[in-house]
Amino acid sequence: MHFNKTPIGYPFPALAQVFLSTFTSFIPASSSLLLTAVVSKIATIIANLSWAQLLALITGPVCFAKNIINLVQLWKASKILVGVDLAERAREREVLEMREE
Q1: CA distance 47 to 39
Q2: Digits of tens for pLDDT over the chain (101 positions)?
Q3: Could you tell me which of 12, 86, 97, 6 has the C-alpha nearest to residue 46?
Q4: Is the model's pTM score more than 0.70?
Q5: CB–CB of 51/4 below 8 Å?
Q6: Positive or negative, the Cα torsion across 61, 33, 15, 45?
Q7: What Rg, from alpha-carbon coordinates, does the chain have?
Q8: Distance, CA of 101 to CA of 98 (rounded, Å)
Q9: CA nearest 38: which of 49, 50, 46?
Q10: If DSSP codes are grouped into helix, strand and coil, which group holds residue 50?
Q11: Which residue among 8, 10, 11, 76 is buried most deeply as judged by most CB within 10 Å?
């Protein structure tokens, strides 16, 4: 199977420049240089990714979080089922004890 590994390129550095030109006026000058460097570096990294890598980068944390949530739900459901099962067994034991008397 062949995947397109060409970098994304153009849109991200251009979007970073728009972002910087818009929001640097609201930020103090001391942190403006740091923000410019960080955003430019992130835009360069994203521009060198392929579309498949970008999608994996975006959806990976979401998928991980959903799996953690599913595990918590599974654990809670199993505890509820154990509680229901124990209650049913106790009820059956009481019925059997009443029949024996």
Answers
A1: 12
A2: 555 666 666 676 677 777 767 766 666 666 777 777 887 787 788 778 887 888 899 999 999 999 999 999 999 999 999 999 999 999 999 999 988 87
A3: 12
A4: no
A5: yes
A6: negative
A7: 28
A8: 5
A9: 46
A10: coil
A11: 8
Residue with tokens 């397109």: 4
What is the Cα–Cα distance from 30 to 6, expressed in whole angstroms? 37
Q: Which residue has the tokens 């000058």?
A: 29
Between CA 28 and CA 14 the distance in angstroms is 23
Q: What single-letter amino acid sits at 39? A: V
Cα 90 to Cα 3, 22, 81, 82, 97: the distances in Å are 59, 68, 14, 12, 10
